[in-house]
Amino acid sequence: MNTPPKTLNMKDEEIVRAILHRNSGVTIDYFYKQCYPLFKSIYDRYYTDCEHWEELATEIYVYIMVPGKKTGICKLASFQFRCTLTEWLKIVSENYCHHLYVKKVDLVGEKVNDSDIFNSIEHSLEFDLSSLNMLDLKSVIALMPNQRYRTLIEHRYVYGRSNEETAALMSMTMPNYYNKHKLAKAQFVAALRKEGLV
Question: In this structure, which topology does domain 113-194 adopt according to CATH?
């Protein structure tokens, strides 16, 4: 039986103070138990390079605890309690994911919108993949840094499964699948370019 996090009975000010003082018990209780629904929801809906929601929670923890270069104060220490800590963490996490997405898309040279660029990539993938043997294809997929994206590309393009079948195998909703599919294709195309195959 799962015990409820102790932080449920703590005020936001107490939680912040404990986290800033590196209280591992409070940090684990708050980030990995109380905020599980928040981080799982953000992980499912937004772009990250994380392979699990816990990895995202850890990234956000580091992000809000690292002191700023100019101020020397971390983001959590700057929290003014104008909203609840969980609401603030949601805003910070969503902004973090948005910036991550923009940075990644810029890295692979694609625009941040739903234009036909990704559609053309998908069609070009079908064409380019036909000229690769299975060993070459798997070697290119192995260059992709994200395991989850590698699995998605394998299901969809190596084993020829439909979008719906791939989403079901990966326990994704269709909207989440299409979001991850676009990003996985962009990462795969970047690997193809690195190998001089496109």
Answer: Arc Repressor Mutant, subunit A (1.10.10)
